[in-house]
Design brief:
The complex is a heterodimer of chains A (109) and B (118). Chain A is mainly β. Helix content of chain A is 0%, strand content 58%. Chain B is an all-beta fold and 118 residues long. Classes of the chains: A mainly beta (109), B mainly beta (118).
């Protein structure tokens, strides 16, 4: 069983839609939860991170963690074509990141 | 602008060749990592290094080796390339510790090397 499972998509939504991206995990030792965004032909870049259960907001993006259910989500409000990318969840234990397989998102104008 | 630079964007090699993938970072980071990224499998850790001349196996080290002679440079070596090593290879670096006083120092990734073995 993978330590981190992520809905692979692909996901296609119209501009302005609310997008929900999700991951589950099995390792209770994970300390921090991160979301990376990867544009085509680029490396992933850190979008957001959070530690505790609850919500963390940054502009149109909200990261949500439920440690009791081992479930994390990233919500994108008012999605834009520029949000089209692959989104990867990642979790830290020590200095080591474990990634989900990524969800490919397309936002159509 | 801080960077992780991978020497080649696209590479085509023949089966059995010895292949070197180079990665250089200018952030004075202690940690460096090599991942491969494949559709349906995500990012998988091949090797990582916490310091010069130190290396640790990741989840899929078979068929690969690494070299870190200088802090800023981390090389991935395919001893005898095979077609199942066709993939996108991503190098990353981070400071140590990755967690400090509640701050998370995420990984900085290079743009990747797309390797095709024929």
């Amino acid at each position: 069983q993978k330590e981190v499972e992520q809905d692979p998509g692909p996901l296609s939504v119209p501009e302005g839609a609310i997008v929900s991206l999700n991951c589950t995990y099995s390792n209770s030792a994970f300390q921090y939860f991160m979301w990376y965004r990867q544009y085509s032909r680029k490396g992933p870049e850190l979008l957001m991170y959070t530690y505790s259960s609850g919500n963390k907001e940054d502009g149109r993006f909200t990261a949500q963690v439920d440690k009791s259910s081992k479930y994390i989500s990233l919500f994108i409000r008012d999605s834009q074509p520029s949000d089209s990318a692959t989104y990867l969840c990642a979790m830290i234990q020590g200095s080591r990141l474990t990634f989900g397989e990524g969800t490919q998102l397309t936002v159509n104008p | 602008d801080v960077k992780v630079t991978q020497s080649s964007r696209y590479l085509v090699k023949r089966t059995g060749e010895k292949v070197f993938l180079e990665c250089v970072q200018d952030m004075d980071h202690e940690n460096m990592f090599w991942y491969r990224q494949d559709p349906g499998l995500g990012l998988r850790l091949i090797y990582f290094s916490y310091d010069v001349k130190m290396k640790e196996k990741g989840d899929i080290p078979e068929g690969y080796s690494v070299s870190r002679e200088k802090k800023e440079r981390f090389s991935l070596i395919l001893e005898s390339a095979s077609t199942n090593q066709t993939s996108m290879y991503l190098c990353a670096s981070s400071s140590r510790p990755a967690l400090l006083a509640g701050l998370v120092y995420g990984y900085t990734f290079g743009s990747g090397t797309r390797l095709t073995v024929v």
